[in-house]
Amino acid sequence: MDQSGHELRESAIDPRGITNATLLGPTSSEYKFSEWRIAGNAGREENIDPVRGPMNEGGLYAERVGMHLPGFPGKCWADVNSSALVVPSAGVRAFKTVVPLDVPSGLDVSVTFRLTSTGNEGYEPSDPGHSNRLRALLFVNGYQYGRFSPYIGNQIDFPVPPGVLNYKGDNTILVTVWSQSAQGVEMKIDWKLDYVHSTSFDFAFDSDYLRPGWTEDRRKYK
């Protein structure tokens, strides 16, 4: 589910993700689910997304069925009437939006996504009981471009280059938020311009091949 901190030297061949889990609680009645299934990434050892590569996805349900990919057909999304992405208890939620861009020709525009949570300077939580004990993944047009763990590290800015971002069309943005607190967590996502320069390079180049979209075969990985 989360490969942060995985050893990339001598232990690079060790299993990734969760290697052990323990359910805590005095009795079985404390557990609020009827099924617990552990699943790896979609396709397992098959590289079903050769453009983005086999390390781009993990085993979250949203990743397996391709919610992060452009063109995902799901229509069951609930509207979020808040600027905060909230998970009210322990668990995982996915938040998605589609943002159109139309950057004028002749401009070099650098875009950075900023992820913040309680504890970051200037952040005002919608509920004082919400904490920052979360792990979030940022997907931009299907690419995993940010890992946000505010109670562990302090990185909040994640720049995304043209080609991954579609400067002349729609951009699918998905954030998965894994709450590790029974009292709930929350975070916010925004983006900012780092700079704007004049350029002779055409940043509106044909980059569709870099952003392959959702296909029907993703349905079998539920």
UniProtKB/TrEMBL annotation:
Matching InterPro entries: BetaGal_jelly_roll_dom, Galactose-bd-like_sf
Q: Which residue intervals define the domain Beta-galactosidase jelly roll in the entry?
A: 61-181
Database matches in Pfam families:
BetaGal_ABD2
Stretches of Basic and acidic residues bias are at 1-13
Question: Where do the segments described as Disordered lie?
Answer: 1-21
Name the UniProt key words of this record, in alphabetical order. Answer: Glycosidase, Hydrolase
Highest taxon of the lineage: Eukaryota
Q: Name one GO molecular function term.
A: beta-galactosidase activity
According to UniProt, the name of this protein is Beta-galactosidase jelly roll domain-containing protein
